[in-house]
Design a protein that fits this description.
The complex is a heterodimer of chains A (about 300) and B (about 500). Chain A has 10 helices and 8 strands. Chain A has about 300 residues and is an alpha/beta fold. Chain A has a 4-stranded parallel beta sheet with strand order 2-1-3-4, with helices on both faces. A 4-stranded parallel beta sheet of chain A has the order 6-5-7-8, with helices on both faces. In chain A, α9 links the parallel β7 and β8. The longest helix of chain A is centred in the middle third of the chain and has 26 residues. Chain B is about 15% helix and about 40% strand. Chain B has 8 helices and 18 strands. In chain B, the strands form 2 sheets. Chain B has a 16-stranded antiparallel barrel. Chain B is elongated and about 110 Å long. Chain B starts with a strand and ends in a 9-residue tail after the last strand. The chains are: A alpha/beta (about 300), B alpha+beta (about 500).
Chain lengths: ~300, ~500
């Protein structure tokens, strides 16, 4: 009986101590940055990916499992960006709060309209995302919707601070809108045509009106052979494409060769927060991306 | 723009969707408002107060009007979106800007929670399980045997799905043949499709526990539980193959536990009929093994380790509890900085099925990613194994003098290192050593005991055409103090060319 009483007391104590910060894990650092801005001191957040790697190719670390095992909320980009590692990690973490469909699992892609939805699902078309491209983090206004989803979910899990989360979400949304206007202004009046290594720019091109001519990979995830490289060089020369965008996690060997053959400018660009030293948070990352398209930015 | 700023949809059990509009006016649906209002109206405290009731009714009517307005706006947005066919940066003539149109599309998508799906799918189809497969084709050559083999080693079909909130099921059908470059045989020709795995595992046990039941690859050893086509090399390391007897296929129960601690650790324990698909080395070399329920001895050299066949099936009937195999494995991982991970594990298994058999192993694997912004990866792994079997010797293995009881032991291990250069190329080296100390027919020395040593040196090169298509070339140099080829040679050079493809959503669990 004493033991039962002690157990009940501990349970009550645990319920009282529930005022501790929400434990949040996100798949990529961009989402962690948003959670931090919205949740402030009331959340403790970390990302699984470092930001430097290809977001499909994340080295699995044991701390990922222990963090997920304790987490109250797991935030993902969705659209199968995390399909290579998140399901196995979640299964091993055995945290029922994070089961997809539960309040502790937030798929931010549910609030946005995907682009690049394949008409036909076929592995011969490369590494396809059946529901559309998951790389919408380069569109600040779609990310505004992700921020709203995060704010709502934090408020649902921690109603005591709902007003703060709501205010921070509104402030972040306003900042995203204001910065988007400035980034648009930076790219306005230029007809920017480019070739990228991997097809991750659908959302950025739609938002900022730049024009993607081709990709170095002939199909998503498929490395080009010599003939494909020659065909691309010919196409770039004919169409006078002035810019090659290399996502920072790809080797610069082949893009350099193509740049030398075509005279195009080569820019190495972060596609996630922390991908490069300059991309220290979401706004800094977008600054670096916009600057690379506008004509500045680092070359590899 | 519409007043709706946020929205979520909650699917109900019958598939209908209940829209919850977070608006600048009110997030409460009409039905709930009416219900609350009626409930309030029925309360005596309010029933006597006509003025308050009237005010409430007016408020409900106002809210109903707001909801109606929002619904109209939603329909308008949907119609506008439907007319907006292709994604474009251009603004509609005389209409909203591209940003507004894109935002509108997002809002409608969020409200409908309806992602454009590739093609029409029926509701029934959505509940279909994940189906994946693998084909593993190997060309092998043995110099001493002057033997070429074309082996379709592995044809696998895996079906898996969550059964409900509590459990998940996995079924793997497989047709697998042995890889023996020195012999002209392809067991695949005589093999029907077998159930390699068919198990149920829990998904909701508390405290980090998980229970598995059925036929599965026991969580034992590092590479023993890896499907053949997923190994880092073409062949299973000879020491592992000999001591465990192929993959760690087992039938029974396994409980594993990942405690909710700061440091990751996994402890597994199982009670199964056996571990290993094929006969272990100690069982092949002299010991009389099991006694079936009729009391008949199965002599050494018979296929009593195999699952198939009536005789093998009979062995499972009326078996005493002590004849079951019990095993335990502990494994953990250490992060040595951001880019280096060390995995370590240790196992022990024991059974007394006719003879007493023990297996122990310890393993480690290091992964080092020199630059996270690349696909380069160094992997180095090693495993040491030991097994001992003690019991009554088979008649034809009896030493000239002494007790009919005896023991056979084997120990050894493998070590390998491979480096992935970018996404495609992955060369590697492996060394394997196996020592056996057994009673052997005919060649027994004065003590009836014989030892043998087998070294296998390998180099291999994997070429990943894509994530699901891999070519691999491997050279093995095998040397022993015993015959390793039909011509009596004590060494051999073997070559392998492997082509492995995967199809479907190929999922394997996290393996510490």
């Amino acid at each position: 009986m004493k033991l039962l009483r002690l157990f009940c007391t501990l349970l009550l104590l645990a319920a009282t101590v529930r005022g501790a910060p929400l434990e949040v894990v996100t798949s990529i650092p961009d989402l962690a940055d948003f959670v931090r801005r919205i949740g402030g001191d009331h959340v403790r957040v970390s990302a699984l990916a470092t930001g430097k790697e290809d977001s499909h190719n994340v080295l699995l670390r044991p701390s990922m499992i222990t963090r997920l095992a304790r987490a109250d909320l797991f935030v993902v980009m969705g659209l199968e960006l995390e399909h290579a590692y998140a399901p196995a990690l979640l299964a091993e973490a055995r945290n029922p709060r994070l089961r997809p469909g539960s309040p502790g699992y937030l798929d931010c892609s549910l609030g946005i309209t995907p682009l690049d939805v394949p008409k036909r699902i076929d592995r011969s078309e490369g590494d396809q995302h059946p529901h559309g491209s998951p790389h919408y983090n380069t569109d600040p206004l779609r990310m505004k919707r992700a921020a709203e989803a995060i704010g709502e979910r934090l408020a649902r899990l921690d109603p005591a601070h709902a007003a703060l989360y709501s205010a921070n979400t509104r402030a972040l949304g306003a900042e995203l809108e204001a910065r988007t206007a400035r980034w648009k202004q930076r790219l306005a009046g230029k007809r920017i045509r480019f070739v990228s290594y991997h097809p991750v720019w659908a959302y950025f091109t739609e938002r900022f009106g730049v024009e993607q001519v081709a990709t170095i990979q002939p199909k998503p995830g498929v490395e080009p052979g010599p003939r494909a490289v020659e065909a691309l060089i010919t196409q770039m020369r004919e169409q006078k494409v002035p810019l090659i965008i290399k996502e920072s996690y790809f080797s610069d060997r082949l893009p350099r060769r193509i740049a030398a053959a075509t005279g195009a400018r080569l820019a190495s660009v972060p596609t996630q927060v922390n991908a490069t030293p300059a991309a220290s948070d979401y706004f800094a990352m977008m600054d670096a991306i916009v600057e690379a398209f506008a004509g500045g930015g680092p070359t590899p | 723009m519409a007043a709706v700023v946020t929205a979520h949809s909650f699917p109900t059990c019958c598939g209908a969707t209940f829209l919850h509009h977070g608006t600048t006016h009110s997030p409460i649906p009409l039905k709930i408002i009416l219900s609350v209002a009626l409930l309030c109206a029925a309360t005596p405290a309010f029933a006597d107060n006509d003025r308050e009731l009237k005010a409430l009714r007016e408020e409900v009517a106002a809210l109903a009007q707001t909801v109606k307005t929002l619904q109209t706006q939603l329909h308008t947005q949907e119609n506008r979106w439907a007319n907006f066919n292709a994604p474009t940066t251009a603004a509609l003539p005389g209409s909203a800007s591209a940003d507004e149109v894109a935002a509108l599309r997002d809002e409608v998508a969020a409200l409908r929670n309806d992602r454009p799906a590739p093609g029409q799918r029926s509701t029934t189809g959505l509940f279909n399980p994940d189906i994946s497969g693998a084909v593993d084709f190997i060309t092998s050559y043995s110099k001493e045997a002057n033997q070429w083999n074309f082996t379709l080693r592995n044809v696998e079909l895996m079906v898996q799905q969550n059964i409900d909130t509590y459990a998940r099921a996995v079924v793997t059908l497989n047709a697998e043949s042995e890889l023996v470059p020195t012999e002209n045989r392809d067991l695949f020709e005589h093999t029907s499709i077998n159930v390699e795995e068919a198990f149920i595992e829990t998904t909701s046990l508390p405290g980090g526990l998980q229970l598995r039941a059925g036929q599965f690859f026991a969580d034992f050893s590092r590479l023993g539980k890896v499907h053949s086509h997923d190994l880092p090399f073409v062949d299973r390391p000879p020491s592992l193959d000999a001591i465990l007897g192929g993959e760690t296929q087992a039938r029974g129960f396994e409980l594993n536990w990942v405690p909710p601690t700061q440091h990751y650790f996994r402890l597994s324990a199982g009670l199964v009929d056996k571990i290993g698909h094929e006969r272990p080395i100690t069982n092949r070399l002299g010991l009389a093994a099991v006694v079936d329920e009729h009391g008949h001895d199965h002599e050494a050299g018979e296929d009593h380790g195999h699952d198939h066949g009536e005789a093998a099936f009979r062995q499972r009937e009326n078996r005493p509890f002590k004849s079951l195999t019990a095993y335990v494995r502990g494994a953990t991982l250490f992060e040595l900085g951001q880019q280096t991970i060390l995995r370590v594990g240790a196992d022990y298994a024991q059974n007394s099925q006719g003879t007493k058999r023990q297996i122990a192993s310890a393993d480690a694997k290091l992964e080092w990613q020199p630059d996270p912004a690349s696909y380069d990866l160094l992997e180095a792994g090693a495993e040491g194994l030991w097994t001992r079997e003690h019991g009554t010797l088979a008649d034809d293995a009896l030493p000239p003098t002494g007790s009919p009881n005896g023991s056979a032991t084997a120990w050894g291990g493998y070590a390998y290192a491979q480096y992935r250069f970018g996404k495609r190329w992955q060369p590697g080296l492996r060394v394997d050593y196996l020592h056996t100390d057994t009673y052997a027919e005919g060649t027994a020395n004065a003590n009836g005991r014989e030892s043998a040593n087998l070294w296998t040196w390998s180099t291999y090169l994997s070429y990943h055409l894509s994530e699901t298509n891999r070519l691999r070339f491997q050279l093995n140099y095998v040397t022993s103090d015993r015959q390793v080829a039909p011509n009596g040679s004590r060494d051999d050079l073997q070559a392998f060319l492997q082509w492995t493809v995967l199809f479907g959503p190929h999922k394997h669990p996290f393996m510490p």
